[in-house]
Amino acid sequence: xxxxxxxxxxxxxxxxxxxxxxxxxxxxxxxxxxxxxxxxxxxxxxxxxxxxxxxxxxxxxxxxxxxxxxxxxxxxxxxxxx
Amino acid sequence: xxxxxxxxxxxxxxxxxxxxxxxxxxxxxxxxxxxxxxxxxxxxxxxxxxxxxxxxxxxxxxxxxxxxxxxxxxxxxxxxxx
Lengths: 82, 82
Description:
Chain A is of the alpha+beta class. The model of chain A has no long low-confidence stretch (mean pLDDT 96). A 3-stranded antiparallel β-sheet of chain A has the order 2-1-3.
């Protein structure tokens, strides 16, 4: 069966996020002062062929560790949609 | 009150996603042939000061339209967490 897997890869909470800071500056320049903090990461959607949901999640986790996320700077969260 | 808003910005479904194709090639080179399709977008987390959840969502929508997403190439989804 084919599962859709959503992976969120974000910069670690303790690290500076220059891209987020730049976006925050841009929003403030546009007059949107209600926004206090911005962090920018990646969102990756995979179509995975697997026997069941757990197997699909395991494949996505392997992909995240090997290629999609850099554990030194980023953490990731996996959600299997269907 | 401060709300955390999650914004997902993805390339439109009808458009090619070269970054996703590159990631797919990388995964196949790593021997992960169970992955069939990959799309890569952005995930943005905002801290928004707003009176209620609807107001927070409206601010995030304005930010997405004005700065975060390019409507010609991308669509976005907003989720208010708390």
